[in-house]
Write a sequence for this structure.
DNA sequence: CTCGGTTCAGGAACCGATTCCAGATCAATG
DNA sequence: CATTGATCTGGAATCGGTTCCTGAACCGAG
């Protein structure tokens, strides 16, 4: 209710001085500064954000664009971003735009054009969509979390290597028939999905193994993993002894499906995931840990430095997930004596 | 880049006329209106939100306060809110403040005081926290989704009745030893948790059954449900024949735990949840469906009408969840002939 | 004592819209 | 034909801050 003029009046100074005292910019003598602060406090003065934005051109607000918030990864990233922004006193405007929804086009055309933010974090942008140029066109710093884009900074994990190491872990244990569960993602994971599949294939090829009827199409979720695993493990002949899942939720779905089918994990089937999801520990899931929350925090840091210095060239940060070995992986039956060389060491 | 003055100049009119033409308020002749719109289009004019806010006092922005974003319920509500806001051309500023985090106090003191929004949706506010008065103090319309507060509008499901009906469903099937899994929530679900527990107790009492060693403390999540069920079902003597779970994730955790213990669902143990979570179908879970996404949409509708008419008295909307019977519930062993009277009818 | 540089203060312009108000035009009415 | 009321327009004030710029006071150095 009370504006800076009221504060100035109460403190017995001019508007300009009051502003300087409160923002800390420019010369103000210590005693007057104290008087102004005192006045502001007694009046409960809170600067109007719109007035500040209008005058300074800074909104003190960061936009976050993501296709879902209901998926583990995205929600975790979002929480990381939020936490990092709060520390810095910045607001967060969410643009949750499912790619298939009609609202998405609107978001790009109307919302983002409003530039209600000093910078944007785009999570999970798929490259084939011609949306990146639109993002660049708004003329504000953009940082991506997962997703293509050489013109913007991007932070992501090394999907290829993650899947490769997951597969290598199984190969080292002695497995030969290893399937990949995932793939065929029709949704926003398509890109990540493909890279992980490729990592799996390469590991298999390097070991001279056939990446047999590897991947089973499925929704990237626990039910999807369940359904895919039921298909994959249904017939007992030629059944794989191990499975690389595209992510932990799918892996857990696969474990549950296996148990339902009477297949014991890890005795009859080893399962490895990627994520280190909240569920991983309960299911004793061996996995490659990515920390989405920290990716969110890191994205904010990147964005901050780009806002501070817009000429800064974009950087591409690739994180290496850490292998966490739990009890969902073991040597295949009859190979109990294989020496586990990889153990929990971080490669 | 180009402001309304440029548009006005190009169209050959005054700023005032240009503004009227574009906002549609006040008198403007059709031809000039067309000229202004044309000019705006060729210049790619987008009004500055801060200037508009400053002049009108409206931010075109809605704040959403929630304790987590990583929980199913909250994420779903959030998506519902977002979808409803996009339709209306409004932005969404997220205040994701974990109650235990240090940032939460800051949110209340700094962020909300900034009033960067025309209205606020608070999801899952617990009553014992003395935060409601703070929310009311900001002087903007507030709508709650779940949570106490007679001074603000609230939309929520009838937790008591939901748990009651879940329990009745089991009683009707012939179960006598029914346990409640959940309770003891140390986190933000405490309130909901308590009401559901109470509903369960009342149903048991009404049927003349003892609400025996009913609830097991657990985190409100799948791993929590798993752990609680392992405790509960560990000993075979006096084991319940049915379980009411505080929510679907816990229910699924319980199902998985039961199977691991060699307890067949529903033959040896019936399980009913509350939510109709994404996982419910995969686990054939009988549950009471609440639609968080629609609650979010509804909250936006409520908020809109309160913004339009601030004198509107707060309303309290209580939704009745629908019973969805799947295969996780059945008569207890030896009572296969019990007539299932409740079936899928909506009570 | 004067000069130059630093510190301090406030008036005024500005950010980019909306809106009040006064004046002009125009059609309809008595 | 004069009057009224509705329609149309643009100049100016306003929203609530920040910042430029000018002027005064103060300081130590020459």
């Amino acid at each position: 209710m009370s504006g800076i003029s009221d504060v100035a009046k109460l403190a017995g100074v001019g508007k300009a001085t009051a502003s300087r005292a409160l923002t800390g910019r420019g010369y103000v003598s210590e005693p007057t500064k104290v008087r102004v602060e005192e006045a502001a406090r007694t009046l409960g003065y809170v600067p109007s954000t719109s007035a500040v934005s209008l005058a300074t051109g800074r909104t003190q607000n960061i936009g976050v664009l993501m296709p879902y918030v209901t998926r583990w990864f995205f929600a975790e990233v979002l929480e990381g971003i939020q936490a990092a922004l709060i520390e810095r006193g910045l607001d967060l405007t969410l643009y949750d735009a499912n790619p298939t929804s009609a609202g998405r086009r609107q978001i790009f055309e109307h919302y983002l054009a409003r530039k209600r933010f000093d910078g944007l974090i785009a999570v999970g942008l798929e490259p084939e969509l011609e949306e990146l140029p639109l993002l660049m066109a708004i003329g504000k710093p953009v940082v991506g979390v997962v997703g293509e884009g050489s013109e913007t900074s991007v932070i992501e994990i090394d999907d290829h290597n993650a899947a490769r190491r997951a597969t290598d872990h199984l190969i080292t244990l002695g497995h030969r028939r290893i399937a990949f569960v995932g793939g065929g993602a029709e949704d926003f994971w398509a890109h990540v999905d493909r890279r992980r599949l490729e990592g799996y294939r390469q590991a298999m090829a390097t070991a001279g193994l056939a990446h047999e009827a590897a991947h089973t199409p499925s929704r990237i979720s626990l039910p999807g993993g369940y359904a895919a695993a039921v298909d994959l493990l249904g017939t007992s002949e030629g059944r794989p002894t191990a499975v690389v899942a595209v992510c932990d939720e799918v892996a857990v779905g696969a474990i549950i499906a296996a148990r339902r089918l009477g297949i014991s994990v890890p005795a009859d089937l080893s399962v490895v995931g990627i994520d280190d999801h909240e569920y991983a520990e309960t299911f004793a899931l061996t996995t490659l840990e990515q920390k989405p929350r920290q990716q969110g925090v890191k994205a904010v840091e990147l964005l901050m430095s780009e806002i501070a210095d817009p000429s800064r060239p974009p950087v591409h940060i690739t994180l290496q997930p850490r292998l966490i070995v739990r009890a969902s992986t073991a040597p295949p039956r009859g190979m109990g004596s294989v020496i586990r060389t990889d153990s929990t060491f971080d490669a």
